[in-house]
């Protein structure tokens, strides 16, 4: 087991990549705090882990709210122990150019996708330092490396997550805290439910060199590795998992 006796917080743990990470972390021996805005989704994942003999708790929280960010870290520490791993993965993916979206829509995306990393990491880091170290993982996306058309707020937020990852890595390396970011390409999750299968297949055929769909479990396996001691010398890294999209122009 790669995460035996570790305590992990996973935001957005109620579905998609986050749920897959919760199951994978639990399978590797971690006690898991499943954080989601939807209490029912968080409960369902934590119950599934416990029914398999793992240890998990469900925490309903909005990661973009400062008080919730503090509470979710404190509740995890009280129930499961000081978090060794924080996976900042919750996110939304709105579309629109800057002339199409409202200021409120901009703020919502930046607050959930980027500010949440600041809020949760700053609550967890003092506990990690006192405990001797820890791991912070973030989910950005390939649109944070190269922007996508009609995804202005999302592309900006995810680019911010990438450089915030590097800042945290530099600032806390000597506290034995590692921070890395995963950049998935198109992953088959509820986030993409609105994408009709035919359009999705045409998109992937044009832009993704490797055939097939990236699954949430593929991303979860990368998260397990980066959270584990096998990655003990890796920090500030940007890990692309995209079927080759970022290798160059393919279309
Ligand atoms: N699916 C993809 O193609 C893809 C690609 C690149 C990056 N990502 C990123 O992966 C992460 C996970 O997305 P997913 O694909 O698993 O989709 P998803 O919609 O299944 O998961 C996102 C989860 O975050 C939760 N969430 C949203 N806002 C929240 C908030 N304010 N507080 C707490 N929870 C909140 C949602 O309820 C949901 O459970 C996101 O950050 C997303 O941007 C996804």
The global form is: globular
Q: How do the strands of the widest beta sheet line up side by side?
A: 3-2-1-4-5-6-7
Largest sheet: 7 strands, parallel
Continuous helix count: 7
The CATH architecture can be given as: 3-Layer(aba) Sandwich
> How much helix is in the residues?
40-55%
| Estimated share of beta-strand residues | 15-25%
Secondary-structure-derived class? alpha/beta
Give the SSE order as H and E letters.
Answer: EHEHEHEHEHEHHE
Which value, in Å, is the CA radius of gyration? 17 Å
CATH secondary-structure class: Alpha Beta
Average pLDDT rating:
98
Number of strands: 7
Give start-end ranges of low-pLDDT stretches: none
* Tally of separate domains: 1
- CATH-level-4 superfamily name: NAD(P)-binding Rossmann-like Domain
Give the names of the bound compounds.
nicotinamide-adenine-dinucleotide
Question: How would you characterize this protein structure?
Answer:
This protein has 251 residues and is an alpha/beta fold. The protein has one domain: Rossmann fold (3-Layer(aba) Sandwich), CATH 3.40.50. The chain has seven helices and seven strands. The chain has helices at residues 16-27, 39-51, 66-79, 103-131, 152-172, 197-207, 216-227; strands at residues 7-11, 31-36, 56-60, 85-88, 134-139, 177-184, 238-241. A seven-stranded parallel β-sheet has the order 3-2-1-4-5-6-7, sandwiched between helices. Helix 1 (16-27) crosses helix 7 (216-227) and helix 3 runs parallel beside helix 4. The radius of gyration is 17 Å and the shape is globular. The model has no long low-confidence stretch (mean pLDDT 98). Nicotinamide-adenine-dinucleotide is lined by residues 11-12, 14-18, 36-38, 41, 62-64, 89-93, 112, 139, 141, 184, 186-187, 189-192, 216.
């Amino acid at each position: 087991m790669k995460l035996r006796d570790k305590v992990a917080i996973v935001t957005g743990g109620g579905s998609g990549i986050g749920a897959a990470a919760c199951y994978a972390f639990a399978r590797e021996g971690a006690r898991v705090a499943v954080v989601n805005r939807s209490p029912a989704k968080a409960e369902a994942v934590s119950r599934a882990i416990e029914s398999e003999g793992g240890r998990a708790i469900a925490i309903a929280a909005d990661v973009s709210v400062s008080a919730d960010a503090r509470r979710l870290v404190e509740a995890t520490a009280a129930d499961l122990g000081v978090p060794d791993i924080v996976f900042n993965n919750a996110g939304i993916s709105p579309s629109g150019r800057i002339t199409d979206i409202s200021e409120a829509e901009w703020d919502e995306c930046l607050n959930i996708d980027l500010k949440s990393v600041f809020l949760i990491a700053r609550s967890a880091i003092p506990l990690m330092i006192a405990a001797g170290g820890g791991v912070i993982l973030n989910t950005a996306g390939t649109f944070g490396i190269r922007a996508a058309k009609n995804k202005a707020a999302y592309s900006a937020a995810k680019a911010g997550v990438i450089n915030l990852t590097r800042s945290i890595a530099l600032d806390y390396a000597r506290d034995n805290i590692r921070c890395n970011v995963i950049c998935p390409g198109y992953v088959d999750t509820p986030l993409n439910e609105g994408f009709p299968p035919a359009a999705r297949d045409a998109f992937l055929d044009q832009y993704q060199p490797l055939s097939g769909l990236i699954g949430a479990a593929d991303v979860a396996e990368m998260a397990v590795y980066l959270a584990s001691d096998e990655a003990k010398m890796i920090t500030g890294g940007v890990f692309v998992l995209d079927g080759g999209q970022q290798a160059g122009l393919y279309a």
